[in-house]
Amino acid sequence: GARSVSVDTHDFPNGSYKVRGTDHNKRKSGFGGLGCGSSTDTDTNNITIRNESTVTYTGPTTAAATTSITVTAKLTDKHTSSLSLAGKTVSFELSGGTTVSDTTNSSGVASVSLPIAGSPRTATITTRFNGDSYFVGDSDSDSIQVTKQATKTTVVPPAPVVHGQPTSFTANVAVTEGTGTPSGGTVQFKVDGNNLGSPVSVSGGSASSSSTSALSTGNHTITAVYSGSTSYSGSTSAAVTQDVNKAPTTTSLTQDPNPTVHGQGVTFTAKVAVAAPGAGTPTGDVQFTIDGDPP
After folding, report:
1. Burial class (CB in 10 A: 0-12, 13-18, 19+), 186
2. Are strands 68-77 and 109-115 parallel, antiparallel or unpaired?
3. Measured between alpha carbons, how far apart are the two ends of the chain, in Å?
4. Distance (Å, whole) CA 99 – CA 242
5. What is the pLDDT at residue 179?
6. Which DSSP letter does residue 136 get?
7. Distance between CA 11 and CA 236 in Å, rounded?
8. Which residues contact 82 (CB under 8 A, 6 or more apart)?
9. What region, left, alpha or beta, does residue 213 occupy, with left being phi > 0 and alpha being psi -120 to 50 degrees?
10. CA 244, CA 187: separation in Å to the nearest integer?
11. 249 neighbors 276 (Cβ within 8 angstroms)
């Protein structure tokens, strides 16, 4: 009768093979069937073993430019998805970027860090198993959105000034992850919520306002708003305080006429001036005294 045998083709490299089946037959012969005889039948068939693979990308589909992400993929037998392929090299290629690779673990999973090079764009990650003597290779292409880098804007705390003294402000713009120094875009400085001059270009991650001496005495809230650029997202700083203190003054006194005689009228004149580094024209009142008492 017919006979069969099971062979796991995964134990053999892909290729062409000859399968030979040999059937040994014994039969009775001679007088009364008392003798024995035997014969051998051989059957040969040509077969081809072609084990195929399926690689499936399972990593992120968005990433910020100039950062790194962990990319993963699953490698299985194409016709037996429950069969994971371990010890195989899987590569990940980012269009316009670089290629990294990893060896699949016992679960058929490859996992490795991929640098996200280049500017924001829609890119492609190509996951590839090149195949080996036991499995035909496979590849998987997936879109990944490379986004602008997030930024953080900070205003350098300004030193206190006095009324009329010039002051200016500096804002620093930095990425919150990854690498790179923002350039391009502008920073709008604001004093108490109002624009201070025109927007200032960012270069080397920094921008400085024009100088102003018009701030009134008291405390003022300073913020900076970064517009963003083609590669970097915009951001707004936390507020810092600019203290504007009263400016120092000097007071000089003259009299006319000088000297005088008993009973002669006299006029006293006080001149009040602002001392450096302050500026402006003082207002307010002057109290004259004679021997410590008002006249």
Report:
1. middle
2. antiparallel
3. 142
4. 50
5. 87
6. B
7. 62
8. 76
9. alpha
10. 23
11. no
Record the tokens describing residue 16, joined without a space.
């062409």
Decide: 169 and 175 in contact? Cβ < 8 Å: no
d(CA 289, CA 256): 16
- If you average pLDDT over residues 240-244, what whole number do you get? 98
Is it the case that residue 61 has pLDDT exceeding 90? Answer: yes
Taking the model in full, what pTM does it have?
0.74
Average pLDDT, the chain: 92
Question: Tokens 């996992």 label which residue?
Answer: 111
Give dist(CA 225, CA 240) in Å, integer.
13
Q: Which of 37, 5, 43, 7 is nearest to 22 (CA)?
A: 43
| HEC string for 62-109 | EEECCCEEEEEEEEEECCCCCCECCCCEEEEEECCCCEEEEECCCCCE
* Chain segment 138-190, per-residue pLDDT in tens: 999 999 999 999 999 999 999 999 999 999 999 999 999 888 899 899 999 99
Query: Tokens 């200032």 belong to which residue?
Result: 200
More reliable by pLDDT, 42 or 292: 292
Q: Which residues pair with 101 in a beta bridge?
A: 91
CA distance linking residue 34 with residue 29, whole number of Å: 6
Of 169, 144, 165, 167, the C-alpha closest to 157 is 169
What pLDDT score was predicted for residue 2?
59
The amino acid at residue 115 is P
3-state class (DSSP) for residue 33: helix
Please give the single-letter amino acid code of residue 129: F
Do the Cβ atoms of 255 and 268 come closer than 8 Å? yes
156 closest CA partner among 176, 167, 170: 170
